[in-house]
Structure formats: C-alpha cells, structure tokens
Amino acid sequence: MLYWALVFLLVALVAAVFGFGGIASTAASIAQILFVIALVLFVVSLVMGFRRRNL
Predict the structure, then answer these.
(1) Measured distance CA(9)–CA(13) in Å, rounded
(2) I need a labelling partner for 52 at 20 to 30 A (CA). Which of 26, 35, 42, 44 fits?
(3) What is the pLDDT of residues 1-55, one digit of tens each?
(4) What is the Cα–Cα distance from 44 to 26, expressed in whole angstroms?
(5) Where are the domains of the chain?
(6) How far does CA 43 lie from the centroid of its chain?
C-alpha cells in the first residue's frame, strides 16, 4: 500500500512539473489517502501484535 502511495506521489510530482494541475492534484489526493490507510493499518497491526504478546 505504501508502494502505491509513493507511485501516485511520483505521478503527481511529474504531472505538476509538466503543468497538468488536475492530474497532479488527483494523484496527490490518492497518494495521501493511500498513505493514511497504510498508516492506520500499520498502527492496528502494531497494537494487535503487542496485545497478542501480553496474552
């Protein structure tokens, strides 16, 4: 998931350099959403791992 967030961020940067504002903003939004999802999944995984060790 983090890989795809980085890919969309790269697409957004390239599109911004070439002046495609709509594509750049859409790709940046997708990258931001994917990053947040990956971060939430990481935190949930971390909490569940600590919980399993304590039981």
Answers:
(1) 6
(2) 35
(3) 779 888 988 999 999 899 998 988 999 999 999 999 999 999 999 999 998 887 6
(4) 27
(5) 2-54
(6) 14
Task: Provide the pLDDT for residue 53.
Answer: 84
pLDDT of residue 2: 79
Q: Which two tokens stand for residue 3?
A: 């890989």
Question: Rounded to whole angstroms, what are the CA distances from 16 to 5, 20, 30, 38, 46?
Answer: 16, 6, 15, 24, 35
What pLDDT sits at residue 37?
A: 94
Strands (E), 1-54: none
Both tokens of residue 45? 């995984």
Instruction: Report the amino acid identity of residue 14.
Output: V
